[in-house]
Design brief:
There is one protein chain. This protein is 33% helix and 23% strand. The chain is of the alpha+beta class. Strand 3 and strand 4 (54-57) form a beta hairpin.
Length: 64
């Protein structure tokens, strides 16, 4: 993502940051934010829960 934003080379090009997307992919959302923070124009937050069955949006686990 950072490479794409840098390639655009314009101060008005940024990103929506959704930490749960990084979390669900197994990436560190804090590290991702540290890398992107000067290009984050909007932040989307939602509930996500990690269980033994995996990571689930909105706190729902499989079978609920």
């Amino acid at each position: 993502m950072r490479m794409l934003l840098d390639a655009a080379g314009h101060p008005n090009v940024g990103t929506l940051f959704d930490p749960c997307n990084y979390f669900r992919l197994g990436d560190d959302p804090v590290a991702a934010f540290d890398t992107l923070q000067d290009k984050v124009f909007y932040c989307h937050l939602k509930g996500t829960v990690a269980t033994a069955l995996g990571v689930h949006p909105d706190g729902f686990t499989l079978g609920q």
